[in-house]
Design goal:
Blueprint (H helix, E strand, L loop, with lengths): L20 E9 L5 E10 L4 E5 L6 H7 L7 E6 L7 H9 E4 L12 H11 L4 H14 L15 H13 L5 E5 L7 H12 L4 E5 L3 H7 L2 E6 L2 E7 H5 L2 H6 L16 H5 L29
Parallel strand pairs: 3-7, 3-8, 5-6, 6-7
Antiparallel strand pairs: 1-2, 1-4, 8-9
Helix pairs in contact: 3-4, 3-5, 4-5
């Protein structure tokens, strides 16, 4: 079954499917004892598109690297109902694909075809299936015909698209992207946004590009000093200038939300998620009491 033809998890009764991500009191510290994640509690359901925003050093990339077991903290973490350890770790890594900020971290073989085939080959698939997946993944990112090229000769935007294809070839159920639009020119940025918008998988996107978060995501988590300080509908969090400023963020000058149907919220019938802290407070709140930005 193609990753594009999977049933939408939102159409399956909730008791039959586990959350894409469920974390309770997830903590992580550097070897020197410096805390990076502080008692992260969150649930991301399958089918959601979630932005993780925050200032530099907030812990965004560290959190992403827990989602397929690259890093291991303390506390309880389940990915698609599985714990990222032991025999379940291999299963999780086949279902959760991470696209790193620097595509050079994922492109290291002699040709685009070999890079995209690397994951499916290591899953033990036969040569015919690997070839089909390479073709489909490259078509999904608009890079058909590039199989024989060396990745190091491609532009930054093309490398980002090939890096995304290396993950799509594994047909993940959860797609995790770290700063997907970093270092892209406007045309390459727009093309990548359009590609990501067309993918029917759970998406978790860490980004400083707040308009991208607004366009691609239903929900936004604001992370600062390793703590979730706001969690709500993307338009609510991202249009709260006071909240953003308190955590060293801002929308670009002149940004205006699209008029009329646009973005995942319009396609999916809107969102009624209120801004709340990670402990589940019901009323909308600008921040969790007692949590301040690094410069605040």
């Amino acid at each position: 079954m193609s990753w594009k033809s999977r049933p939408d998890p939102r159409t399956i009764p909730a008791p039959l499917i586990p959350a894409a991500v469920e974390a309770r009191d997830l903590c992580f510290s550097y070897p020197d004892g410096t805390p990076v994640l502080r008692r992260i509690c969150l649930t991301i359901e399958q089918g959601e598109s979630v932005a993780i925003i925050g200032p530099n050093g907030a812990g965004k990339s560290t959190l992403l690297l827990h989602l397929n077991g690259i890093l291991k903290g303390t506390g309880d973490l389940r990915i698609l109902g599985l714990e990222p350890r032991g025999k379940d770790l291999r299963t999780i890594r086949s279902k959760v694909g991470i696209v790193f900020q620097d595509p050079e971290d994922q492109l290291f073989l002699t040709s685009v075809a070999h890079d995209v085939a690397f994951g499916p080959t290591n899953m033990g698939l036969d040569a015919g299936e690997v070839a089909r997946r390479v073709k489909q993944a490259l078509a999904a990112v608009g890079m058909e015909g590039c199989e024989g090229l060396a990745a190091h000769r491609l532009s930054s935007g093309e490398k980002k698209r090939i890096a995304t294809a290396t993950v799509l070839a594994m047909r993940p159920e959860v797609l995790v992207l770290d700063e997907p639009t970093a270092n892209l020119d406007p045309k390459a940025r727009r093309r990548l946004i359009d590609i990501l918008a067309g993918l029917s998988v759970t998406k978790i996107i860490a980004t400083h590009d707040l308009p991208v978060a607004y366009e691609l995501c239903d929900r936004a988590l604001l992370l600062d000093q390793g703590t979730i300080v706001a969690d709500g509908a993307a338009e609510t969090v991202l249009l709260d200038e006071t909240l953003l400023a308190a955590h060293d963020l801002e929308l670009p000058y002149g940004f205006a939300p699209p008029c009329g149907p646009a973005g995942p919220r319009a396609r999916r019938g809107g969102s009624d998620r209120s801004v709340k802290d990670h402990r589940g407070g019901a009323p909308p709140a600008r921040a969790v009491p007692g949590v301040r930005s690094p410069t605040g």
